[in-house]
Give the backbone structure.
Amino acid sequence: MLWKLTQNVLTTVVVLYTGIHWGIASVPGVYIVLNIFQSTVSHSNFERSLYIGISIGLAYVLWMLSTILLTALLSYVFKPSIGSIRVPFLSALTIRWGFLNVLDRLAKPCIHHMVPSWITDFYYRALGCKIGKGAFVSSDRINDPYLVSIGKNAIIGSKVIITPHLAERDDLVFSPIEIGNNCLIGLGAQINPGCIIGDGSVIASRAIVPKYTKVPPGEVWGGIPAKFIKKK
Ligand SMILES: CC(C)(COP(=O)(O)OP(=O)(O)OC[C@H]1O[C@@H](n2cnc3c(N)ncnc32)[C@H](O)[C@@H]1OP(=O)(O)O)[C@@H](O)C(=O)NCCC(=O)NCCS
């Protein structure tokens, strides 16, 4: 009962906050559009449409960049410093984690458009993800980045889900995920809490790696649940 009430109140606050967050992020773009609108009154309708149209397109890109920046700043401040931990659903940590998830969802549409890029690497790093030199992160689905480390020259395919948390019965379980140097995580694979993927290993596309799995270096694993396929 208390849990349900808390959830409903927080959801309402979140819905209102979404408007404010995205609204603040839209200010630079709206400013440009307004200026173009005012400074082109003496032009023909065709020229005005062109200038205003381009400024709206740029305003949308600016909105995405501002959303990523604003979200990264807030998440940087609020990200917790945790390791392997199990907490009840209603706890100070889960409320903080829920807020971080809300922030992440506000940035998701923008991240989705921009992976892989230095912009999304910046976002994940601001949220605490360790990304080694030369790594190529093509997924927009890295949950709890403060619990994820990705080694040098690793490739994270698109639609890969890296999730260091799982809901289990009445608890949330968190455990860090380590992806070694030169690993390849195939398209759409899912890496669960506590997994360690050894250097140079390959996780096949669509595989689900169960929680706490340790994949030794230099091996290919695949399937659901993921199992050893062969040495590389
Ligand atoms: C796993 C993978 C590396 C194997 O490729 P490969 O070395 O060329 O090996 P093969 O295709 O000969 O397959 C070897 C075995 O793995 C199995 N296998 C291949 N892909 C698999 C998958 N996605 N899930 C489960 N098993 C798979 C094959 O059935 C075969 O089994 P068998 O020996 O019993 O016949 C490859 O299929 C893969 O998933 N690569 C990921 C690519 C990717 O998503 N890149 C990032 C985005 S572009």
Remarks:
- The two ends are 53 Å apart (CA to CA).
